[in-house]
Amino acid sequence: MYRKYYQPELETMPVEEIKKLQDEKLVKQVKHIYDNVKYYRDLMDKSGVKPEDIKGVDDLHKLPFLKKDDLREAYPYGLLAVDMKDCVRIHSTSGTTGKRVVAFYTQKDVDMWEECCARAIVAAGGNEDDVCQVCYGYGLFTGGAGLHGGSHKVGCLTLPMSSGNTQRQIQFMMDLDATILCCTPSYAAYLGESLKEGGYKPEDNKLKAGIFGAEPWTEEMRRDIEKALGIKAYDIYGLTELSGPGVAFECESQSGMHINEDHFIAEIIDPNTGEVLPLGTKGELVFTSLDKEAFPMLRYRTRDICVLTREKCSCGRTFLKMTKPMGRSDDMMIIRGVNVFPSQIETVLLNNGYAPNYQIILDRVNNSDTFDINVEMSTEDFSDTPKVITTKEKKLQDAMKAMLGINPKIHLVAPKTIPRSEGKAVRLIDNRRRYGITT
Ligand code: DLL
């Protein structure tokens, strides 16, 4: 049975009512946090703000920000707002440096999160007739559990594949007629490649939609994946600190992700000054949870850079929309003084007919940054004639220079020599870290 929304009364709520709901929930959430989390109480006391000062969303700016460092400092139980006996689950971030972030969930928290994922699946055209293949990792990572739970709530037949074992993924996809695919966009692209290698055409599978997120991807990559798999590809956004996937999701219009505003308040701030910026301005995304019990968050700085807009959407949902994250305020590379986002490199590659199989290698020689990009040739375009390779490298280098403003050294490498990821792709090797350079 076709359904347009998972929870229509909430997803299409008039904007004034969303604001009223947020006002009411925020007052309760702040009180819950102040009463139960000493770490927050101390932060709020230090900023001179009491729960009574927060009467609604308009007072949000009075609250202090929470940063990833706070989560590390409070590790593991310092931000827990309920008794441990009321928690039913933890998840944890992949943790690049320092301590991992551990997030706790009550059963109510898990239900809310799964409902958010169910909204995403229905927005991608999912219903109880669908077979939903979940190949996000299961375990501490939130991807597998979140989409798995959402798929159950919608009533799809759920294939709990987890990541990896591509031949088995393909076998189940074909034999069990999977119709919805959930994984990272880089793995979706890899599955597309593998299907082609296996002699399958896009029309040979029954897939109709993919729900891809957890890492940045571009519109060009969306088009490639859609073509390779014969599907519509939808973006999904989220982070462990707030629950996991499903904080925001794309609808049929594929033009940005609706933020589940009945559960989260979104703000955009200037990452340098912390000043709140108006809708339509690019800046760092900050979230406040509204009804989380175990691990609530007030003004959590995501480090993701994007733009928020509230325009009428053709799908009828009234929730605010966020653009694709355009990079992170902390994964932005500064190379020879120039700001570079990996997504820009990907756009140039795709515009020049290369698959997004690449690796950026940064180093420092004689006090100057070196900037190399290894790019894989496709099997069709492969050449081992030095002259052909040099000409192609030069062409790509010029295109990079035009986009980035600086000249990387391009190395075209043989097909299948850059390691494939089953989860998030490792795009950057920053050897400058040994010199203490972290951007
Ligand atoms: O990646 C949750 C998730 C799982 C989202 C599956 C979507 C699908 P973390 O591991 O905590 O959680 O990483 C969160 O990943 O702050 C973004 O920088 C990035 N990210 C997540 N979704 C997207 C997306 C999960 N759609 C961090 N586009 C976030 C770009 C994304 N970046």
How would you portray this structure in words?
31% of the residues lie in helices and 23% in strands. It is α/β, with parallel strands linked by helices and 439 residues long. The strands form four sheets. An eleven-stranded mixed β-sheet has the order 4-3-5-6-7-8-9-13-12-11-10, with helices on both faces. Strands 18-17-16-19 form a four-stranded mixed β-sheet. It has a two-stranded antiparallel ribbon with strand order 1-2. Strand 8 (244-250) and strand 9 (257-259) form a beta hairpin. Helix 5 (107-123) crosses helix 6 (142-154), helix 8 packs parallel to helix 9 and helix 10 packs across helix 11. Bound molecules: 5'-O-[hydroxy(phenylacetyl)phosphoryl]adenosine.
Which CATH architecture of the largest domain would you pick?
3-Layer(aba) Sandwich
Low-confidence stretches: 94-98
Structural class: alpha/beta
Q: Tally the beta strands.
A: 19
CATH uppermost class of the largest domain: Alpha Beta
What is the fold named in CATH at topology level of the largest domain?
A: Rossmann fold
Major sheet: arrangement of strands: 4-3-5-6-7-8-9-13-12-11-10
Rg over alpha carbons: 22 Å
Quick take:
Helices cover 31% and strands 23% of the residues. It folds into 2 domains: 330 residues, Rossmann fold, CATH 3.40.50; 103 residues, ANL, C-terminal domain (GMP Synthetase, Chain A, domain 3). It has 439 residues and is of the alpha/beta class.
